[in-house]
Specification:
Shape: globular
Radius of gyration: 16 Å
Structural class: mainly beta
Number of strands: 8
Strand content: 35-45%
CATH class of the largest domain: Mainly Beta
CATH architecture of the largest domain: Beta Barrel
Order of helices and strands: HEEEEEEEE
Distance between the termini: 41 Å
Helix content: under 10%
Number of domains: 2
CATH topology of the largest domain: OB fold (Dihydrolipoamide Acetyltransferase, E2P)
């Protein structure tokens, strides 16, 4: 991603948010011109929950070149507490903690360093949920 595009997308990259169609409730990652389901043009911005459960996961051992220095790493399909499903990198897991159904929470971490532009890109990864007493 080039510098202008990265700066333009920072409000979305740095928080768990999206857009919901006012008419049919379809979720969109970015504010679209029209709803992909009902063609409406009315949207409300929503905050997504920062916790959920791990549905499935895999370990990436042959990554794209941008992530070669951090391989191997885990990615997972996460169902947030409101039912929204997202794919994210996983972090801070011990091998025995990585299992389907594990409770997870979002943490803000470095995602990668863009080699061409030298931009350090941050965003959310998910880790095992800390038990609160």
């Amino acid at each position: 991603m080039r510098v202008p595009g990265y700066w333009r997308n920072m409000p979305f990259l740095y928080r768990l948010a999206g857009w919901k169609c006012v008419h049919c409730g379809a979720f969109h990652n970015y504010k679209p011109v029209v709803c992909k389901r009902c063609r409406s043009r009315e949207f409300a911005q929503i905050e997504l929950p920062a916790s959920g459960r791990l549905i499935a996961y895999t370990t990436v051992r042959s990554p794209p070149k941008e992530f070669a220095q951090v391989a191997p790493y885990a990615i997972g399909l996460i169902e947030l507490d409101d039912g929204t499903r997202i794919i994210s990198q996983l972090t801070d897991f011990r091998e025995d903690e990585l299992r389907d159904g594990a409770r997870v929470e979002a943490v803000f971490r470095r995602i990668r360093v863009n080699g061409d532009q030298g931009i350090i890109e941050y965003g959310y990864k998910f880790r095992p949920a800390l038990r609160r007493s």
